[in-house]
Each structure stands twice: as structure tokens, then as C-alpha cells.
Amino acid sequence: MLVEVSKAVSASLNLAELLRDVSIVLRRYINHDFAGMLLHDKESAMFRLLALDNPPEYLEEGDLIPIEGTPDGLAFKTRKPVWRECIDPNEFPSPTVKKAFDAGMRSGCSVPLISRDKLIGVLGVGSQRESSITEDVAEMLQLIANQVAIAMDNALQFAEIERLKNQLKSEKLYLEEEIQSEYNFAEIVGKSAALKNVLRQIETVAPTDSCVLLYGETGTGKELFSRAIHNLSHRRERTMVKLNCSAIPTGLLESELFGHEKGAFTGAIAPRIGRFELAHRGTLLLDEIGDIPLELQPKLLRVLQENEFERLGSSRTIKTNVRLIAATNCNLPEMVEEKTFRRDLFYRLNVFPITIPPLRERREDIPLLTGYFTKKHSLRMNKGIESIPREAIDALCNYDFPGNVRELENFIERAVILTRGKELQLPISELNSGFQAKNDAPVNSSLEDVEKNHIAEVLKRTNGKIAGKDGAAEILNLPVSTLRHRMKKLGLK
Q: To 10 degrees, the CA torsion angle through 418, 424, 425, 426?
């Protein structure tokens, strides 16, 4: 019997195969109705059931069974077989024993699984007939268990090695290392050549008071780079004031920039300080500078050249000392040629232009950004995410991210919400859907034709609505003025 048991289990490194082989051997030598193998689960301090043969209805593979108050627990603690020719449910107070008795179990035996003097678990059998499990059966079961324990220990160690191998495939590095570039700019993550070039330019211009013009697509982090310029300047102890020019209605933008006096216009019930006053001796960021109306541009040019302005409704001239950073995703030279942006204002802003590269031009930063955002949002949501699958990183690196870093962060945040375990679960299938509207342009169409068809399709879906909620500008993630400019250029009414 021992030779047969040894042959049956010695080659089994897979736990499922081992359980099947043990079940076959037990059926030959022991008359029983149920057999089960219990593995000691250190984390829960309980047994975890690995069903072998004909499990009763009240038990399922993977169930946790208490150690206290069970014959299995007694065998485990004493390291000796425990058998009962007639089960008394009152002897063992565990509900599991009562359920077994109610299910018809009348005799049974539990023997410890010990390998290299290490307790692994318990092997047990049960019968629906009294006196079916005797002392002789218990002795035989222990002999089988001694062989099974060695094979089970080997299988568990093999499974642990496989787990560790799989863990090495995951990118724990992204969550455990300090993720900063060599320039150590706060929250600017990456080490690509394109990013390093931008950071070198920022280090060069930051100590000066010169105007900086940041070019970059939506979502590239222009505000983050502008804050880096401010923090490296001698103005860092003062305020950095921000204004998104596309987010303010045209009629109110002048008041936002320069302020107004009481009664300057309907609704001006009190004086208001403008952004140029708030940013005195500090830095002012004007985002989406290309959306400033043409009629307001001379006033902006004056304050940049003369460092003075008047509030709306006032004749008193106010002096200001502001370092201006302008940001845009528009092609200002093209707008100058089309006379939608003043040439002299453009020259005044274009003292030190910096182009922020899109994410598709700095793909080597995507793994670092993925780790940074995963750590950021998992901490915020109290989730213990420790690793990122390598295949997920590869998929992210192969995606163009039209929304750039902002799109990547939003995608990672959604993944963190969906993740239930310690490994980040990324919905990779969503990358190529949801953000890309369909268009019917043929493959050989020019880029201009594709853009025209795409905008026309969106306008058709919105019934010609451009601005406001659910308008074409919102769907295309473009400022209203930029969309109108594109439509005019492409000949769309």
C-alpha cells in the first residue's frame, strides 16, 4: 500500500492533481463516504478545506473551518490521529461537527499532515455507518498521510515559487521607488529626453522676470510647469494667481483681469480687485491666452508694456509688478496671420516660448506616471495596491493618449476604483473606445479631411450646438473660440 501511495503522489507538484491521486488511493484501502484535506491557513488561523472526494452539501472547496472544537483541530494540536467509531456531536462544540452529524456522518477519523516536522494540515475521512472507522483504519490513514504530507509540502513550495515568479512579472518597482526626475520638480514625473529638455528651459528662465509662453496640447500639464517656473523664481514667496481665459464669459473677462468699481456695469454692486492686482509682486498665469477677445488684447498689451491699468469704471491708474506666464494649445502664429490675434501682443508674449511635449512623445515616462498616479489614488482611497502587471504597462505605452497626462491619470483613477486586490486591474479594452468618435472618412483621406468629417459628425449629433453643456466644443474638449476658428478654416457652417 505504501509503495502504491508513494508512486501515486511522488510526481504530483500540482495541488489539484495531488488531491485527485490521493482520493484514488483512499478509495482502494478505506471504506468511507467522504474524504477531505484541510490546509492550515496562517492568515486566518483556521483550516481551509481542499475537498477530495464526495464532499457533503454543507461544505465547499475553499471553506474556512475552525480549529477549536473539532476533531481535526485536536489531531492538528496533538499531532496524533483522532478517530470516533460513533460520533457524539456534544463532544465537539463546533457547528461544523453538528452539521456533519445532521448530514448523516456517524464515524470518522482525522490525522495530522506533518512534513519535515512541520504541521501542514489534516487529512480526514468520514462514514455514514457507525464503527466503520476503527483504530486499524486510523493507523492505515496515518501511514497514507505521512506520504501525502511530503508530496503536499512539495506542491505547496512549488506553488509558492510560481507565485513569486509571477510577482516578478509585475512592476512593483513603480510603486516602491521614489518617482521623481533628476531635476526633482514637485509632481513633474518622468525621465525622458523630451521632458528633461523642457525642465532645462524652465531652470534657465525661472530666475528671470521674463514672460514665458507655454505651448502644449490639452492635458499636458501646462499649469504644473507654470507652477514650477514660479517656485524656482524669486517671486515664490508671493502669490501665483491663475485665470483660464476660456472659462470666463467674454463680457466679464475684462473685469476678471483688471477689476471694477461699484456701479461700473449692471450687477457691479461692490468694487472688485482684478487678477493683475492680486498677483502684484507675484506670478500671473493666463491659461488659454488664445481665447482672449480681440478687443481686449490692446489693454492686455498695455499692462504688459507699461505695468499699469485702470479698473472698469475708474480713471485712477494702478501700477502693478507682475511676472506673466501665458499658456495655450492654439497655434498663435497662425492666428496672427488670420488676424484673430494681435501681432504686437504675440511678440510681447513670445519672449521665451516653451513647448510641452505630448505624452506620445515621451512614452518612456508612462510607466513612471502610471506608478505615481496608482500610488496617489490608492492612498487616497485606502487601497493597498502593490503591483502593476507588465502587460498592462506595455498596453499603456502603446496607446497614444490624445488627452495626454490628464487622460492617463483619469484612466488610472478609474482602474484603482475597480481594483479589488493588491494588483492594479486596468480596463485595457476601454483605451480604444469611448473617447474616439467614429467618422466615415476613408483611410486615404488627408488629415484635414479627417478633422473636417470628425467635427461635422459631432456637430450633426449636437444639432449644430457649439457652446454650452453637451455642445460640440465640450465633446471635442476644445475652447469654443478654437472650435469656431477650426470650423471657419475648414469651411464648416
A: 100
Other Cβ atoms less than 10 A from the Cβ of 165: the count is: 9
Q: What is the DSSP string of 290-325?
A: GGS-GGGHHHHHHHHHHSEEE-BT---EEE---EEE
101 in the same domain as 239? no
Q: pTM higher than 0.70, yes or no?
A: no
- Smallest CA-to-CA distance from 285 within 224, 340, 336 is with 224
Q: What are phi and psi of 424, to 5 degrees?
A: -60, 130
Tell me the CATH number at 389.
Answer: 1.10.8.60
In 42-182, where does DSSP find H-type helix?
71-78, 95-102, 135-169, 173-176
Q: Are 123 and 81 in contact (CB under 8 A)?
A: no
Query: What confidence tens digit (pLDDT) does each residue in 82-134 have?
Result: 999 998 888 998 888 888 888 888 999 999 999 988 999 999 988 899 888 88
Q: How far is CA 408 from CA 44, 255, 337, 361, 437, in A?
A: 38, 35, 34, 14, 18
Please indicate, yes or no, if residue 196 is contained in any of the structural domains. Answer: no
Distance CA 233, CA 206 (A): 5
Task: Tell me how far apart the alpha carbons of residues 147 and 131 are, in angstroms, rounded to a whole number.
Answer: 26
| Segments forming the whole domain that contains residue 416 | 362-430
Query: Using one digit for the tens of pLDDT, what is the confidence trace for 215-242?
Result: 999 899 999 999 999 999 999 888 889 9
Which helix or strand (DSSP H or E) is residue 240 part of?
strand 240-244
Question: How is residue 287 written as a grid cell?
Answer: 491659461
Distance CA 147, CA 271 (A): 90
CA 288 to chain centre: 28
